[in-house]
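Input (structure):
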């Protein structure tokens, strides 16, 4: 079924989102604040970039102790994840600044994760945010044959153990972005007619990928191999540690927001209709976690407030905690779900539980 044929209901709790948007807009107006980033967002950007670049400079020029060398790579992994969660994410949603040029240039920091901003916007903004948890539409729940994230996908024998081995594959996320995923996505998105939505062409995107990934390889592989006093295998081990930390961190933030027992994984009928309003579908298929963990929320770019992010992706994450009160109260008023796990551990536990059930049962009815 093509993307253009899938439609959300327009007469199912449609008043909820109208009222919610009005209340959120009033919050910003009454408090005379912008829905975009502020000084704290700029400060965080500097912190996340330093968390990546200080260890990188140390790796290239200063560190001569093996344990400290590998520790620097580990810190770079957390820096990569922090850049992705707290900086790049808002910019590529157009929420970092009201100036589109600022958003575009800040969005380029995805380069330091080995990824493509163009492909990310297509996969995340267009497919994931529009068709959240819709099997065949949302690529975030279609990781391939090894993992089963949706009850509507075929279950295979190996999936019985996915709740155990999934974490290893999560650690490969950013490494696969760098090595192969972006190239495969580029050709697939061109066939789907999505490349043009980013004001680029297939040829330009391929050239950009080759140049950017070559530069990334020089910075993170070639220069460390040339300048560090360590054996090649230690440097490569550090590079893999960095990507493993970044990939696992990103997966542990995004997966418990959607692949959890409370999600209902909607499917369009034969006519392409999904029997829920778009905003209501977000409530059914998104969950918050650890709302009281301020420092944790700071590092993960407010993405523990995924409900607020999915309903208002064009609002900077520094505002999510405040508007979460408005969202939860409005959802309750309209008798709609507002899923939130008290702790991060609880969210990970719920995600693991669903992985186990998806690996054990064939039918959606089992859920």
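Output (sequence):
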């Amino acid at each position: 079924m093509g993307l253009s044929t899938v439609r959300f209901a327009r007469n199912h709790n449609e008043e909820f989102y109208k009222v919610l948007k009005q209340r959120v807009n009033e919050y910003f107006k009454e408090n005379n604040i912008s829905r975009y980033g502020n000084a704290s967002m700029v400060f965080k950007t500097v912190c996340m970039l330093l968390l990546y670049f200080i260890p990188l400079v140390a790796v290239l020029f200063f560190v001569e102790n093996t344990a400290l060398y590998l520790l620097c790579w580990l810190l770079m992994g957390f820096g990569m994840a922090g850049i992705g969660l707290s900086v790049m994410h808002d910019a590529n949603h157009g929420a970092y600044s009201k100036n589109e040029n600022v958003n575009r240039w800040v969005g380029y920091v995805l380069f330091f994760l080995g990824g493509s901003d163009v492909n990310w916007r297509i996969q995340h903004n267009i497919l994931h945010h529009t068709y959240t948890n819709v099997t065949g539409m949302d690529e975030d729940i279609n990781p391939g044959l090894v993992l089963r994230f949706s009850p509507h996908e075929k279950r295979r024998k190996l999936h019985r153990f996915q709740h155990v081995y999934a974490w290893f594959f999560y650690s490969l996320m950013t490494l696969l972005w760098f090595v192969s995923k972006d190239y495969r996505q580029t050709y697939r998105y061109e066939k789907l007619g999505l490349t043009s939505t980013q004001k680029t062409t297939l040829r330009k995107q391929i050239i950009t990928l080759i140049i950017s990934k070559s530069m990334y390889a020089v910075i993170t592989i070639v220069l460390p191999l040339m300048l560090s006093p360590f054996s090649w295998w230690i440097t490569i081990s550090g590079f893999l540690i960095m990507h493993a930390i970044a990939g696992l961190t990103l997966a542990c933030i995004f997966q418990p927001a959607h692949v959890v027992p409370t999600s209902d994984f909607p499917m369009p009928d034969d006519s392409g209709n999904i029997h829920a309003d778009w905003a209501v579908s977000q409530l059914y298929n998104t969950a918050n976690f650890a709302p009281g963990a301020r420092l944790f929320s700071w590092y993960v770019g407010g993405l523990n407030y995924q409900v607020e992010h999915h309903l208002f992706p064009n609002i900077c994450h520094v505002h999510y905690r405040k508007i979460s009160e408005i969202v939860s109260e409005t959802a309750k008023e309209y008798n709609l779900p507002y899923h939130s796990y008290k702790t991060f551990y609880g969210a990970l536990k719920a995600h693991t539980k669903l992985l186990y059930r998806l690996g054990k049962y064939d039918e959606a009815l089992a859920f």
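Notes: The chain has a mean pLDDT of 94. The longest helix spans residues 66-92.
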